[in-house]
Design a protein that fits this description.
With 539 residues, this protein is an alpha+beta fold. It contains 13 helices and 19 strands. The radius of gyration is 25 Å and the shape is globular.
Length: 539
Amino acid sequence: MKKQIIIPAIGSLLMLFIGSSLSAQGSLFDSGEIPEIKITFEKENWRYLLDSLRYNGEGLLTGTLEADGEKIEEAGVRYRSGVGFTPGNKRNGLYIKLPAGLSSEKLKGYTVLDLSSAVRDPSLVREVLAYEIIRSYVPAPKASFAKVFINEDYYGLFVNIEPLDQPFWDRYGMTGKGSLFLSNPEIIEQEPEGCTSRIYGSLGLDKGVTCLKNHFDANAGANWGALERLTETLNEDLSKIDQILDVDKTLWMLAFNNVVANLNSYSGQYSPNYYLYLGEDGRFVPIVTHLNLAFGSFKNTGSGSDLGIRQMIQLDPLLHSDNPSMPLISRLLSNELYKKQYLNHMITIVNDHFKGESFKEKATTLQQEILSPLMEDVNKYYPTSDFLRSKEEIIGKKSRIPGLVDFMTKRASFLKMNPAFTIRPPAIADVEVKRRERFSSKRVSDFEIQAKIGKFTKKVHVYYRFADGDAFKMAEMKDNGNSSDEKANDSVYGVKITPPSGKKSIEYYIFAENAKAVNYSPTHYTKERYSASIQELNK
C-alpha cells in the first residue's frame, strides 16, 4: 500500500494553527512565547486508534482542541505523514484538521495544524533554521514551536510548520488555486505495468500520468497533464523549460539543498519532499518541505550506501550535475547560464547565513528559548544532555547525526575553497534612473535606467514590472552610446523603458553575466528591488 501523505486541498483543507486566540502573541510562527495546544479525546486508547488510522485510509480521530482558552469541538486528528511515524511510539508528529465552517478571520486563514516531532534532530532547531534560510529567497513556510497536551498530559514540544494555506499564498502574491503536487515516491510496491523503474520523484521521463501518480500526490482536480509536460520538456527540450518551470526559483531550491546538505529532498535518495505548484502563469514553482533531516542528518545521495559525515561536509557543489537520473539538476546545469546562476545562489546563501558566528548565534538563541519546555518533555527522543551537545558534537553511535553548527561551519569553509566560489562576477554599481534635468521644462515620461558594469561583461539585462503581482519582463541594457547610456564602451550600460498608459512607477533589478559568473543588483533581488516613479523623476 502506498505510504500515506496528507496533502492540502487548495483553498479548503490545508494546514495549521489556531488563530485569534493567539493574537496577543503576534504572528503564529514567530519565535518567542511558545503557545500551548491542548487535545482531548473521549477514547483512552487514542494511541492505538491513531496507529490504526495511520495505516488504514485517511480517517481522523475526533477530539476537542484548545489553544489559549479558545475551545474548538470536533477537530480531526491523525499522525503526521513522513519518516517520523513509528507505531506505538511515545510521540509522533500530528496533523489536526479543524472542523469546516469556522470563519477564516477567527482562524487567521488556517484550517489545519501541522506539528513535526523533529525526528532525528537532537538539536530540535533544524527545521526552524532551514525554513528561515530558504525563505530568504523563495516561497517557503514559516516554522516555530508549540507545546502539545493530550488528555491533560504533556505530549511534548513540537515544531509548528506553516501550511500551504491561504495566508501563505497571499504572502507570496499567489492565489493558491492552482495544481499542487507533492513528491511522495512509492518505494515499496512495484511500478505500474509499463512504467520505468527507479524514477521516483526525480521528474525523469516516464510513460504517462499513471506512472507519475505512483510517485506524486496532488490536490483534487490537479492538472496531471501539465506535470507530464514538465517531465517531457525537462528531458527533451530544455530550450522551452522556462515556459513551464520557474527556473530561477528551482535553482534556489537546488542551491539550498546542496549548501545545507538537505538530501531528504530532490537532491537525495528517491527525490522526496518537495512541492510543485502550478501557478497562474502556467509555470511550476518548487516549495521545500520536511526539513528536519537537513544539515547532514540524512546521508544518502541516491547512489550507493550512506555517506560519512566527512563526505557530507565535502559534498560536491555540483552533485548530480552529470547524473542523468536526476534531470532537474543535470539537465538544468547543462545550461551554462543556469549553472552560473545556481553557483551564484550557493555563494549568496553561504555569505548570508554562514559567515562568522551568525548561524551559531541563531541556533543558540532558539535552543535557549525552548530549553525549559524541552526539559519538561518526558516523551522527547533525546535526553537533554544530547540537546545541549547537539550544536557541536555528533549524536548517536548508529545514526551519527552531526553537530549542527560544527557541521555547517566546516561545510561553509569547504565550499568557500571551491574554485567556483572564488571566481569574480561582474561588478554592478551606480544603478540609477535618469531624472528631469534641472531647470528643464521637459518632463520625464520614460524610465531610462543606467548602471556601471565591470569589464569583460558579456550580457546585462534589466528585469522590470509596473505593478506588484505582475510577471517580470526582461530588456537588454547596452553600452553603445545610443541606449540611454553615456558614451560607447565606457562601461555604463543603459536602456529606455516606456511604461504603458496609466503606469507611473517601476520596480526592477539588474543582471550581469561574464564568461564564468553572474551577478545581481540588488543582491537579494528576490526580496529587494529598485523602484522609481515618474512623479519622483520630475521633481
